[in-house]
TrEMBL record:
Signal peptide, first to last residue: none
Domain SHSP, first and last residues per copy: 31-141
InterPro entries the record matches: A-crystallin/Hsp20_dom (IPR002068), HSP20-like_chaperone (IPR008978), Small_HSP (IPR031107)
Family: Belongs to the small heat shock protein (HSP20) family.
Domain of life: Bacteria
Natural source organism: Tractidigestivibacter scatoligenes (Olsenella scatoligenes)
Protein name, entry field: Heat-shock protein Hsp20
Gene3D superfamilies: 2.60.40.790
Length: 141
């Protein structure tokens, strides 16, 4: 029994053999969109929603926030500046990337929405609208 290896560890060891070291070396080049997506929190603050997104190193003009039929979308298009392009890097871990995250807010008002980008955190306040009757009861004959 002592020589038994849990299946998940065994499969993980085989999946990286014999090129595990090469995979670790080239890992920064093989990122997926899921790795580049930013973290986002949505809070119900009673009379409004507070949406925060962690966007370190992103400038205000690289962010686009839209509310379309209750769906709040935050899009980021991070570009490399002209100053950065001319430098001769030996190692560089920053890159150009873009990502979009969204959340559906069923009773979001279309007016009074505010946004602020400070300290790498985007905060969007979306007021709630008073409930309107979207449901119509149909009588069956």
């Amino acid at each position: 029994m002592a020589s038994m290896i849990p299946y998940d560890r065994y499969a993980r060891a085989l999946s990286s053999w014999p090129f595990g070291a090469f995979d670790d070396f080239f890992a920064p080049l093989a990122t997926t969109d899921g790795d580049l997506a930013f973290k986002m929190n949505v809070e119900d603050a009673g009379d409004s929603y507070v949406v925060t997104a962690e966007l370190p190193g992103v400038k205000k003009d690289e962010v686009d926030v839209e509310l379309n039929e209750g769906r709040l979308s935050i899009s980021v298009d991070k570009k490399e500046s002209d100053e950065e392009k001319g430098k001769n890097y030996l190692h560089k871990e920053t890159s150009e990337w873009s990502a979009t995250r969204g959340v559906y807010l069923k009773d979001a008002a279309t007016t009074g929405i505010t946004g602020k980008l400070e300290g790498g955190v985007l905060t969007v306040n979306v007021p709630k609208q008073s409930e309107k009757a979207n449901v119509t009861k149909v009588s069956i004959d």
